[in-house]
Amino acid sequence: AQRVTQPEKLLSVFKGAPVELKCNYSYSGSPELFWYVQYSRQRLQLLLRHISRESIKGFTADLNKGETSFHLKKPFAQEEDSAMYYCALKHLPPGLSGTSYGKLTFGQGTILTVHP
Amino acid sequence: EPEVTQTPSHQVTQMGQEVILRCVPISNHLYFYWYRQILGQKVEFLVSFYNNEISEKSEIFDDQFSVERPDGSNFTLKIRSTKLEDSAMYFCASILTSGGANEQFFGPGTRLTVL
Asked: Measured over all CA atoms, what is the biggest interatomic distance in chain B, rounded to whole angstroms?
């Protein structure tokens, strides 16, 4: 069964410290993984996706298929990074390689608090 | 920048009543989704919708739930007879195409409270 696990419900760091939000997944096919962020009183919004290997707001995430992980990292946390972070896996229906109906399975979320 | 909108932002209803949650997806998007999040729990997929029919639904989406795209813009989720355990945040999402790593855009959510 497909599963996304974020082991830390809460994570607190001080401004300028490195931060790593952990995400592990279980999926039988070739996964597409995303990080979504939800700032206070705002909607879920995409932070980054593994396929584009981009860095957004200083965050990066590398897909490690051997460890089935997609951890989110930032070398120097800022106070404005405080938010809820969700790791999500996008499903591919069997037999439809390269396309999907796009259902997302989310992890439990990690609340990141960056203290001044 | 276009956004997914949802109304109402908060709906309070009595157990057993019908509720309709409304969403306006981004105008040129083709795939639509409903998710829910019970307080303190993870965001869960309910249903996906494409070409005027359900593409996929989860176990949660039983016969008390239905979805509809009544016109070219709205996408609705109906719960026929609400239960206490239906209290949750309901998110609508849309995507232009299903392929690859295209981004799902989420609405702000409707908080449903069943008393």
From this structure: 42
Tens digit of pLDDT for each residue in A15-71?
Answer: 999 999 999 999 877 788 999 999 988 899 999 988 777 788 999 998 998 999 999
Q: Beta-carbon neighbour count of residue A34 at 10 Å?
A: 24
The shortest C-alpha distance from A90 to chain B (Å) reads: 8
Partner residue facing B101 (CB), from A32, A36, A42:
A32
Chain position carrying tokens 């584009």: A52
Question: Tokens standing for A55?
Answer: 């860095």
Size of chain B in residues? 115
Mutation for A interface: B33, B43, B49, B59, most A CBs within 10 A: B43
User: Which one-letter DSSP state was computed for residue B38?
Assistant: -
The string of pLDDT tens digits covering residues B28-38 is 888 899 999 99
Q: How many CB atoms lie within 10 A of CB A78?
A: 13
